[in-house]
C-alpha cells in the first residue's frame, strides 16, 4: 500500500510548498506585509547569494554551516554512543531501570536551554558547553526509546530463543537488539532533529561562528534578511539530515520490508 501511495505524496508535498511560496509572494507583493518585516522571495534569494559569495561579518557562509554541523554531529554521536547502551540496560535489567528511571523522569521535562548557566559555569564559553547542550536533548530521546524498544520485544521471540538454547549473549544479539532496533531508530531520528534544532540555542553561548550565531547576531542589528536566510538554511539542512536518517533506518531495518 505504501508503494502505491508514494507517487501521490511527492506531488502533494510540492503543491504544499508551492502554495506556501504563493502566499508569501502575494503577502509581500500585494502590500499585505511590509517588505521591511518580511522580504520577498527574490530579495531573500539575492541576499542569500550575497552571503554565499561575501560571507557574514568576515566569515564565509560555508564556515558558519560547517561549524554548526560539526558541533551538532559531535553532540549527537555522543548521545547515540551513550544513550543506546544505557537505554538497553534499563530495559533489559530491572534493577538498572528501577535505579535510573526516576532520574530520567526528573530530567526529561527540563529544557536543555535551562542548563546554559550551568554549562557556562562548569565548562566555560568554549566548545564543550555548546556540545553539552546539543548532547542533552537527543540523549533523553535515545535512552527512552531504547528502553521502550527492549520492553516491546515479543515474549514469543524470547521463548523461541530460550528453546533454541541461546546463551545470554546470543539472546541479546539475535533477539533483544534486533527487536529493539525499530524503536531505537525512532529515538535516533528524533534526536537528530532535536540536536540540530538546538544548535541555535547552543551558539548563543559566546559563539563567533555558526548559523545560530549568525541568526542571533543579525537579529541584534535588525538585519532581518540575514535572519530569514539563516532560518531557511537551518530548515533546509535539517530536512536533509532527516532524509539521511530515514535512509539509514531503511538500511538497518531492511528486514521489515518497508
Query: What would you report as the Rg, rounded to the nearest angstrom?
Result: 22 Å
Shape: elongated
Question: Class by helix and strand content?
Answer: mainly alpha
Helix content: over 70%
Query: What's the quaternary structure here?
Result: single chain
How would you describe what is shown here?
- By secondary structure, this protein is an all-alpha fold.
- It has a single domain (41-151, 181-253), classed as Orthogonal Bundle (MetI-like fold), CATH 1.10.3720.
- Helix content is 79%, strand content 0%.
- The chain is built from eleven helices and no strands.
- α8 runs antiparallel to α11 (224-252) and α10 (211-220) runs antiparallel to α11 (224-252).
- The longest helix is centred in the N-terminal third of the chain and has 32 residues, at 61-92.
- The chain starts with a helix and ends in a 6-residue tail after the last helix.
- It is a multi-pass membrane protein.
- Pfam families: BPD_transp_1 (PF00528).
- It is found in: Cell membrane.
- It comes from Actinomadura chibensis.
Compact overview of the structure:
The protein is mainly alpha-helical and 258 residues long. It has 11 helices and no strands.
Question: How is this fold's topology laid out?
Answer:
Layout: H1 2-29, H2 41-54, H3 61-92, H4 94-107, H5 116-123, H6 127-151, H7 155-163, H8 168-197, H9 199-202, H10 211-220, H11 224-252
Helix pairs in contact: 2-11, 3-4, 3-6, 3-8, 3-10, 5-6, 6-8, 7-8, 8-11, 10-11
Amino acid at each position: 500500500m505504501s508503494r502505491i501511495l508514494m507517487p501521490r505524496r511527492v506531488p502533494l508535498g510540492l503543491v504544499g510548498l508551492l502554495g506556501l511560496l504563493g502566499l508569501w509572494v502575494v503577502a509581500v507583493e500585494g502590500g499585505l506585509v511590509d517588505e521591511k518585516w518580511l522580504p520577498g522571495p527574490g530579495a531573500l534569494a539575492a541576499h542569500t547569494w550575497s552571503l554565499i559569495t561575501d560571507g557574514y561579518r568576515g566569515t564565509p557562509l560555508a564556515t558558519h554551516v560547517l561549524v554548526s554541523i560539526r558541533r551538532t554531529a559531535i553532540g549527537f554521536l555522543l548521545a547515540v554512543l551513550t544513550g543506546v547502551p544505557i537505554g538497553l540496560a534499563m530495559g533489559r535489567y530491572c534493577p538498572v531501570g528501577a535505579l535510573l528511571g526516576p532520574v530520567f523522569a526528573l530530567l526529561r521535562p527540563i529544557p536543555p536551554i535551562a542548563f546554559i548557566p550551568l554549562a557556562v559555569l562548569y565548562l566555560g564559553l568554549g566548545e564543550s558547553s555548546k556540545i553539552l547542550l546539543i548532547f542533552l536533548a537527543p540523549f533523553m530521546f535515545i535512552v527512552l526509546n531504547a528502553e521502550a524498544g527492549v520492553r516491546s520485544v515479543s515474549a514469543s521471540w524470547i521463548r523461541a530463543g530460550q528453546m533454541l538454547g541461546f546463551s545470554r549473549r546470543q539472546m541479546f544479539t539475535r533477539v533483544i537488539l534486533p527487536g529493539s532496533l525499530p524503536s531505537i531508530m525512532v529515538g535516533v531520528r528524533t534526536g537528530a532533529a532535536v540536536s540540530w534544532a538546538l544548535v541555535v540555542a547552543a551558539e548563543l553561548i559566546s559563539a563567533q561562528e555558526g548559523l545560530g550565531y549568525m541568526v542571533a547576531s543579525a537579529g541584534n542589528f535588525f538585519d532581518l534578511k540575514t535572519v530569514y536566510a539563516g532560518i531557511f538554511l537551518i530548515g533546509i539542512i535539517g530536512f536533509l539530515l532527516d532524509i539521511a536518517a530515514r535512509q539509514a533506518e531503511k538500511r538497518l531495518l531492511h528486514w521489515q520490508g518497508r
